Amino acid sequence: MEGGETVSLLGERSLGPPARFKTYRRRWFLLAVVCLLNCSNAMLWLTFAPVADKTAAYFHISLEMVNWLSMVYLLISIPFGLVATWVLDTVGLRCAVVLSAWLNMVGSITRMFSVLKFLSLGSQSYWYLFIGQCFCALAQPLIIFSPTKLAALWFPDHQRATANMIASMSNPLGILIANLLSPALVPEGKHIPLMLGIYAVPAVTACALATLGIHEKVPPTPPSASATDSNSQPFFTGLKMLLRNKPYIILAVCFGGGIGMFTCFSALLEQILCEKGYSNDFAGLNGALFTVCGLLGAFLLGMYVDRTRKFIESTKISFCLSALASIMFAVISRFRHQAIMLAITSSLFGFFGFAIYPIAMELAVECSYPVGEGTSTGLIFVASQIEGVILMILLQALTVHVSEDPFSTCALDQDGALDWTTPVLVLAGLCSGMACFYVIFFHTDYKRLHAETISADLAKAEDASTAHVPES
């Protein structure tokens, strides 16, 4: 077929008769659109976290209200996450991507209303930001769940982990851009309108590409044996199967908790560091290192797992090392003048922590096959959002108000600065506990790979028997 590459069951180019499976070059366009959309949504999520103090001063609101601009993502995606899994596994990938692109764009434009004079609500302009964040939050589950579905439907088995890694890691790339761009664009509060306009550009671009460029929800010919059965289980049947699957539940609780911790770390990093005298720029740099090293770790681990299929060993080792890094950060962040050590620990935390993300998503599909990819990854994401909300509320409740400190770089609100010693220690303890629980109790078979191996063996046997039939 035009624009396609013929592949065999084992992912090799076929020079003989027409093969059962094909890959299409346009899969890379679909991957690029999902990556841009994922990156844009993450940028919109963390727009205000690196400049929380300046945002609070500009809109005359408290830091808690600024934190709600991030936390609303977690709250909305809990109920809508289940809807998103149904959309992906029942309606299809194309509908999910286009719908998320429009929600993302509408949200980014709505946020800009808060700084337009002719639409000003005075002291209530904050609610434009909040409503815009709600639209973006509705888009997030559809975007986050798409990579595993895209990889399963459009990529052969030897490219799935890599494709999932690329699409999934575009989300932390967006976090990286937000951590670097927001402090650079907003040296003073008066520059917030410029920041909101710039952040709307990728959202509008992604919406245009998704709407005009994506025309099919599945390829004409599947790229692998498992792709032919990608929608084999009805949504509610798959949901029941997941809730009875012990390895999947363990993975959902532990990995979901890990995502929740990383969410809190990204959203609260500036507030944690400014009380000890570190600038917004330095906090942004730490967030950037956290993400860049995470992208590197995910890329290396994704390539390794694509070759070795060692999903379980890779995630267990990475989870333990990320827990050690979180302990280091919790201790070092409580001291002043430790910029180099903080940068190193943030890098290690990101390198080992983010590396788990795409592999764990693939592992969720492996241990839950033949449940649809959208359902298996979606339920983990919903669990992560629930755990993230609980953690966000808990960590903020554990902060202690302190008197004004001459070393603090926080733009103080009416209640003074916050001490984050107890929250970061609790975060490190939870990360360590979950890592231990995962290492001890998680064990599973690779059900999807096993099914593909059986399918390949049957196809080989059928081809061999056909080859020995005498010609008439």
Low-pLDDT stretches are 5-19
Please report the distance between the alpha carbons of the first and last residues.
Answer: 31 Å
Give the CA-based shape.
Answer: globular
Largest sheet: 2 strands, antiparallel
Content-based structural category: mainly alpha
Tally of helical runs: 15
| Strand/helix succession | EEHHHHHHHHHHHHHEEHH
- Give the amount of beta strand, in percent: under 5%
Query: What integer value in Å does the Rg equal?
Result: 23 Å
Fraction of residues in helix: over 70%
| Total count of strands | 4
- The overall pLDDT average reads 82
What is the oligomeric state here? single chain
Largest beta sheet: strand ordering? 1-2
Brief account:
By secondary structure, the chain is an all-alpha fold.
Task: Explain the overall architecture.
With 472 residues, this protein is an all-alpha fold. Helix content is 72%, strand content 3%. It has 15 helices and four strands. The chain has helices at 27-45, 52-59, 63-91, 93-112, 126-154, 160-185, 192-213, 235-243, 246-274, 280-308, 311-332, 339-368, 373-397, 421-441, 447-467; strands at residues 4-7, 21-24, 400-402, 417-419. The strands form two sheets. It has a two-stranded antiparallel ribbon with strand order 1-2. It is globular, with a radius of gyration of 23 Å. Mean pLDDT is 82; it is low at 5-19.
Give a quick set of tags describing it.
mainly alpha, two-stranded antiparallel sheet, 472 residues, 4 strands, 72% helix, two-stranded antiparallel ribbon
Describe the protein's topology:
Elements: E1 4-7, E2 21-24, H1 27-45, H2 52-59, H3 63-91, H4 93-112, H5 126-154, H6 160-185, H7 192-213, H8 235-243, H9 246-274, H10 280-308, H11 311-332, H12 339-368, H13 373-397, E3 400-402, E4 417-419, H14 421-441, H15 447-467
Antiparallel strand pairs: 1-2, 3-4
